[in-house]
Amino acid sequence: MDIKQAITVAHIAGMIMFMGNLMISSAWKFSADRSRHPTLMCFALRQVAMMDRIFGAAGVSLMLFSGIAIVVMQGMSWASSWMAGGAALFMLACGLWLGVMVPTHGRQEMMSQDIAAGRPIASRYWQLSWVWHGAGVATICVLLLGAYWMMSAPH
C-alpha cells in the first residue's frame, strides 16, 4: 500500500468512525430513554459523551486531515464547485455535531444527577432528546450527501 492509498483508507475510516459513532450513540440513547430507567439513562449519557470524545473526535480529525492531504497530494483545487461543496457539507456536519449535538447532550448530562437521584425527569430533558436525535439524523444525512457528492464528482 502506498501513501496515497493509506491516506484514502484513513479518510474512509474516519467517515466510518464518525458516522458509526452517531448511529450507535443514537441507538443506545434512544433505547435508554425509551426504557425510562434512571440508571440506564445515566449510563447511556456517560457512554455517548465518552464515545463522542473517542470516536467522534477521532473520526472528524481523520476525515479533516486526510481530506486535506488528498487535496494537496493530488493537486486538486479548493476553488472547484465540487470541492467547495464537499468541504461545505463536511463543515455543516461538523457544525451540527459540535454546535447542536454536543452542547445539547451536555445539558442533558447536567440533568443526570436529578435523574440518578430518582427525581422526576424534567420535560426539558425530553425536549432536548428530540433536538439531539433530530440533529443526529440531519448530521448523518449531510454526511451521506457529502460522501455521494465527493464520490460522484469529477476528479
What can you see in these coordinates?
It contains four helices and no strands. By secondary structure, the protein is mostly helical. The chain has one domain. The longest helix has 36 residues, at 38-73. The two termini are 21 Å apart. The model has no long low-confidence stretch (mean pLDDT 94).
Number of helices: 4
Low-confidence stretches: none
What overall form do the CA principal axes indicate?
A: elongated
Average pLDDT figure: 94
Question: Helix proportion of residues, in percent?
Answer: over 70%
C-alpha termini separation: 21 Å
Question: What are the salient characteristics of this protein?
Answer:
single chain; 155 residues; mainly alpha; 4 helices
Task: Give a quick summary of the entry.
With about 160 residues, this protein is mainly alpha-helical.
Q: Could you outline the blueprint of secondary structure elements for this entry?
A:
Blueprint: H1 3-35, H2 38-73, H3 81-116, H4 123-152
Helix pairs in contact: 1-2, 1-4, 2-3, 3-4
